[in-house]
Amino acid sequence: MAADISSGGSSTITTYQGQGARMMLPAWVIIGFFLVLPVGMMLVYSFLTKEFRGGVIWDFSLAAYDQFFFDRGLFGDEPPKIEWTYITIFWRSIWQAAVATVLCLLIGFPTAWFIATRAGPARSIWLFAITIPYWVNLLIRTISMKFLIRDNGPLNEFLLAIGVIGEPIGLINTNFAVQLGLFYSYLPFMVLPIYASVERYNMAYSEAAADLYASKWAALRFVVLPIVKPGIIAGCILVFVPSLGAFLAPDLLGGAKNFMIGSLIEEQFKGNAGNWPFGAAASMILLSMVLVVLAFYARAQTKAGDR
Amino acid sequence: MKLALKLGASALALTLAATSAKAEGELSLYHWFEYIPQELLDKFSAEYDVTVTMDTFDSNEAMLAALKAGKLGSYDVAVPGDYMVEIMIGEGMLDSFEPSEVSNFGNIAPQWVDVSFDPGRAHSIPYQWGSTSFSVNRDVYAGDINTTSILFDPPAELKGKINMLDSQGEVMALASLHLGIPQCTSDRDQLKALNDLLQAAKADWASFGSDVAKDVLVSGDAAAGMIWNGFSAKAREEGANIEYAFPKEGFVVWMDNVVLLKDAPNRDNALKFMNFLLEPENAAAVTNYAQYTAGVTGVDGFLSEAVTGAPELSPPADQAGEFVMACDQDVQEVYDTIWTNLKK
Amino acid sequence: MAARLDLRRFPGFLPITWLCLVLLYAPLIVVMVYSFNDSNSVTLWGGFTLRWYVEVFTGPEAPKFKAAALNSLAIAISAAIVATTIATAAATAMLRSGQFRGKSVSFVLINLPLMVPEIVTAVASLVFFSAIGFQAGYLTILVAHIVFCIPFAYLPIAARMQGIEGAYEQAAQDLYATKWQTFRLILLPLMAPGIMSGFLLAFIISLDDFIITNFVKGAGIETLPTAIFGSVKQGIKPNIMAISTLLLLVSVVLVTVSYLLGRKGQTTPTNKGT
Fold first, then answer.
1. Could you tell me if residue B158 is inside a domain?
2. Is there a single domain that holds both residue B135 and residue B233?
3. Residue A73 distance to chain C (closest CA, Å)
4. How many angstroms away from the CA of B329 is the closest CA of chain A?
5. Whether residues B190 and B157 fall in one domain
6. Stretch B261-276: mean pLDDT
7. Which residue of C has its CA nearest to A24?
8. B181 and B299 co-located in one domain
9. Does some domain include residue B237?
10. Among B180-184, C78-82, C164-168, where is mean pLDDT lowest?
11. Do B164 and B208 have their domain in common?
12. Can you give chain A as a three-state secondary structure string?
């Protein structure tokens, strides 16, 4: 969505020619000083030596990255092997985020399509209904989900009462609970951009396809999908990126049993480990991954623009 | 925009109103969650005309980390456990005081004055002490529970229904007791065994959580849970049919202490607060609330029946608990690796 | 006609949309229902009561939540105002000022708070504030909130500005209005709906934030999310459900108002992208 705005044609309006840098200054100062500088400092910290029980010693060291990628045994003196611990944690986070994204897409695309093809007032009401839960605090939504799916919770009681199941299905503290939580947290992020794309989609294309004897599904697959693709990609990114670093869903729904990227990083600064350079290194690796995804997005956007 | 400005003005007014109700002094407390009754804080506020603000933490390590990450200097007192007091002294994070500055110093129970983690009590006063083991839901499992196997090699009924405290020190200590090895051992085989034990046991655990430890037992989400004795007593009072175990392999004992933090913004009020907590009546109020045991003499007359009769507070006479030890850097790093392996 | 309509309809899409709504609302409704539960145990139904709502305002935790709510409100309003102002200036620079040095980087910079994962921003801010000796307190929370609110305020503002043709400003300048007058009397009023939705978005985002706030907040300062987190970590209690229900109602009212306002002000389409 963001790239839409930058590449718009209205940059030709130059009412304030020459004032640009001055008006941009506050944003530069605030974001530069309170975001770029802190993140830069983390980058520096990731190359420093750790201080026992939290803090850094100003000696250059690659130990944090070494710890991330190489396994030197329990006591740190064996010949290095590939370290799977953190790769596993990152992979798990990627997997959870990916499953949540796919779930969001499966439910979100039909929903967005359905809403966007309603007539005016009905469309507004549907859209309104979909966005309301998104304005409720994420924390509250996650807690509600936890309450709903716990072993003695309403969902299990309901299913037991109507006799579908004989004993509570153990949902809470599973990977699926985390995926469900992520899906639930970010679903509107998927629906809204797809909706925006479909809304602008010109039905004449589908009609043309139908006139050429394409089935409805073929028209959807070969005509609609390529055109609304930017919206789908934007939706996937808006779900995937925050899911990757998510913190509440794994903690509250997953039972904090398995580290995810977010909790792994937090643990280095707030928990037992107290290894700041390692936490900084893990942060930098996460950030690089996100930037790669975004670069992919930017490229897809440019391609879509070329069309 | 005008609306925005108006909103802004009212926001500022609200902030001012919220902060302008200042009393004579302030006290900033960094405390465990659910560990001090609000009435007691109110009583202190009223008696000394001091506004008390409190933040809470859920593990000794989280408290240490927060203080190290820049929060030192914003709190006056904190309530670390025994080994953490020792660590904080080593880190130079505590201020010291003379017994003469705290007139109730003499109320400290004799066995808690000259403690190993703070000899002579130069930085801390006792708050409460208790034990850490685990509780089992008797509706689910009726067998013998006084063994650490309940956690580390659980019977079939309890497999997959166990909540562990998210507290490295206590989990490692109990696991060491289960294996019969010393804490903070530097023996490689023993450390490997420790790692293997936790790896194997993890499959039988449902979740990690300290602040939820009581709730999961009450709600039935967990059938057994590692827990502190007083917290377990509270869970039992809230209706859980649970029994707290004193395992034959041993259990963890701990003492939480009120410490005077370095760079405390209100040192005088901090000492007043510490003195206040050494009054038997006030120490008893904490005990009645948290259901642990006070480290102060003369509390007996103030204790509620629920506390005096609680089975959780009376370990069998022939059994002694062990304090969690603060390991040195080499061993601690291995512990950290084991812990990360456990949660990967 | 029938054939055209047919192309919009796919079997199964309506049920999926309903499923989507059910999934979104079920947890919230369950919590709402249980907030009226007259039983100390959250799992058993014990009849209808309003006592948890009374407890929200009078119970032992009431002062804590009241202070937290005031903090949240004050911080969200202040952060949203500052972020909206900065974003408006930035949007004018990006869309109305032609080329200037650093323009392409500026676009990335404005959106950077969206790109950096929250947990990374949180720990980086914590470590940075502590390194420069910026004592954690209201101000640290406010500054952190302003930073991540900027892109959220910027998006609707820029979208709106893009939809406004340059002719109005051109006309004003032809009539010898100064640049400032043009901005104040022409552009700003035209921009009002965009600025309002930018403000509201920033406001809600700030109100909603938990992770960053949790890391940078000072001693004894809670916002509503951190206060709620502190309570629910120990278990979901009925009074938390009552608070959640109240917050849900507040959100619904806020969104409805902003939606109605937005519809009133929406005369030109705001989205002219792709």
1. yes
2. yes
3. 28
4. 7
5. yes
6. 94
7. C90
8. no
9. yes
10. C164-168
11. yes
12. CHHHHHCCHHHHCCCCCCCHHHHHHHHHHHHHHHHHHHHHHHHHHCCEEECCCCCEEEEECCHHHHHHHEECCCCCCCCCEECHHHHHHHHHHHHHHHHHHHHHHHHHHHHHHHHHCCCHHHHHHHHHHHHHHHHCCHHHHHHHHHHHHCCCCHHHHHHHHCCCCCCCCCCCCCHHHHHHHHHHHHHHHHHHHHHHHHHHCCHHHHHHHHHCCCCHHHHHHHHHHHHHHHHHHHHHHHHHHHHHCCCHHHHHHCCCCCCCHHHHHHHHHHCCCCCHHHHHHHHHHHHHHHHHHHHHHHHHHHHHHHC
Domain identity same for B176 and B248: yes
CATH fold of A84-268 reads: MetI-like fold (1.10.3720)
Q: What is the domain range of residue B318?
A: 130-253+314-343
Same domain as B241, residue B114: no
pLDDT band at C270 (very low <50, low <70, confident <90, very high): very low
pLDDT at A45: 94
Count of domains for chain B: 2
For chain A, the structural domain boundaries read 84-268
How close C184 comes to chain B (CA, Å)? 11
Quote the pTM value: 0.84
Same domain, B248 and B338: yes
Say whether both B57 and B149 belong to one domain: no
Which residues of B fall below an 8 Å CB-CB distance to A?
Answer: 59, 61-62, 64-66, 68-69, 87, 91, 160, 166, 168-169, 188, 191-192, 195, 202, 205-209, 219-221, 329, 332-334, 336-341, 343-344
* C230 touching chain B per CB within 8 A: yes
CB contact under 8 A, C41 and B11: no
Q: Does C218 touch chain B (CB under 8 A)?
A: yes
> What does the pLDDT look like over A199-252, one tens digit per residue?
878 788 888 888 888 787 888 888 888 888 888 888 888 888 888 888 888 888
